[in-house]
Protein: FCP1 homology domain-containing protein
Organism: Gonium pectorale
Amino acid sequence: MLAADDLDKKTLVLDLDETLVHSSFKPIPNPDYILPVEVDGKLVDVYVLKRPWCDHFMESVGSRFEVVVFTASLAKYADPLLDLLDKQRLVRWRLFRESCFPYEGNYVKDLSCLGRDLSQTIIVDNSPHSYVFQPANAVPISTFIDNMDDQELLELLPVLNELEHAPDVRVVLGANLGLRDLSS
């Protein structure tokens, strides 16, 4: 459970890999970061490409939401990457693989472990398996690999603007995404 910091704001849970960035052990053209990570006792370079509009998106949501990055990645990779990605320290909390729940061969991000009101909690993730326990809180996003014309983070901002003022985000998301209301 997270400490109560920004209880006057909605909680925005963001996935890392294939949502905000794409990472590869193989060199990629024009990486934003090259991150040395220890794997099996030796350092290997991880090549990281930020999704277009990532910085703008983070600046926009950082002051309006309690931002949490919840990733199924290991902390030894994700924590130093977030140090680079979040230079303004807009992310209030970082949760890694050990906070995920193994379920049917996937790592599930159980939002109830945050200790936040689920009516005030949103998750943005490219993998529906990640939010299978709380699908009514989810804003799906396409998987990002290397499309530098991608606009999804920019297009997500009006959705988050609407959710910021909603009494219950699950009602809005259920109506907009055709999900049944799973909050009851």
Q: What stands out?
A: The first helix runs from residue 54 to 62. The chain has one domain: 11-22+51-177. The helical segments are 54-62, 75-85, 152-164, 169-177.
